[in-house]
Amino acid sequence: MADRVVLAYSGGLDTSVGIGWLRDATGKDVVALAVDVGQDGEDLDAVRQRALDCGAVESIVVDAKDEFADDYLVPALKANALYQKRYPLVSALSRPLIAKHLALTARQLGADSVAHGCTGKGNDQVRFEAAVAAIAPDLTSVAPVRDLALTRDEAIAYAQQHDLPIEQSERSPYSIDQNVWGRAVETGFLEDPWNAPTEDLYAYTQDPTVPREPDEVTITFEQGVPVAIDGQRFSVLRVVQELNALAGKHGVGRIDVVEDRLVGIKSREVYEAPAAIALIAAHEELESLTLERDVRRYKRNVESEWADLVYDGLWFGGLKRSLDAFVDHTQLHVSGDVRLRLHGGRAVVTGRRSSQSLYDFDLATYDSGDTFDQSQAKGFIDIWSLPSRISARRDQAN
User: Fold this and answer.
1) Is 124 a known active-site residue?
2) Which residues are annotated as a binding site for L-citrulline?
3) For labeling, which of 44, 61, 177, 198 is most exposed (least CB within 10 Å)?
4) Which of 35, 33, 23, 30 is nearest to 5 (CA)?
5) Which family does the entry's similarity section mention (predicted)?
């Protein structure tokens, strides 16, 4: 039905008022599509009904939690993905999955266009539209908030004037996005980077300054994939959910950062990602045990490029797919256990072991039983430093 447009619906302010805006601007019926990527605390049946109450002709909810964990979070974890060394790609990872279901639903319904609630200042507009273009290049993307230059104040006023069923908390000045990998809070008083976050902003983590006993947890990986906690096997989704609770109790994963958006402006963001930060810390430590030195060194550069590509909305791009192949190959021997101590906002590795370990105790020890032949070190250093010695002689002669 080309007279329909499929809207990526979150249940929040912008997409709720976007239903009416889209209908008025395009003359098309609006189908709302909500994708469940583990948004804790949201009643998706209520979200479905809210879309209908706001004027959608049909409201669809897709349970994609396991797909998100297996196909999006696992590659990110294997790549130790942190944008600008800080941000664990909370929103950036969910957008290509949502865009995929958006495009698939549009094709199933015969619609010729899709829509999202992004502004013209953010990254998500690029992520949605670039992903849709890569999956279904024939579809047209519409962004009512951006294309009509509607402000958040105007959206709140529109919701009030039309008596839309938007909860008061959603009329707050904050913009919140969340999924099972983390939670992002922006706008409001946070737009001044000098203002400290207040405790009421957080939902996934407890105050790390409150005294409490530390917890220790052992995470088991198989070829880079987390498969068990304290010996009990879980799905990837369940591992993330369990660690959100365990690490979140200790305030692990709170991030306050000024980041460089794709559109060229800086943005102050507050994130909380307890499972993501804990898992990345554990995974990196297991790699230190199982990867060769040159592989680890090269992979660090790949990780940075991988995170940049995903942040910039190129999940389905050729370079990112090629980097995936490299990263997957590095994970063949990344299997074993990592013990974490969770306390005071930190996830600290206290132990690591692997049957694939490259750590040789007999070579590493300084005690009796040392098998390292130290007599070979002098010759190695002479050859290693030979280029430096030759160039130094030249420089001193000039």
Assistant:
1) yes
2) 87, 123, 127, 175, 259, 271
3) 198
4) 30
5) Belongs to the argininosuccinate synthase family. Type 1 subfamily.
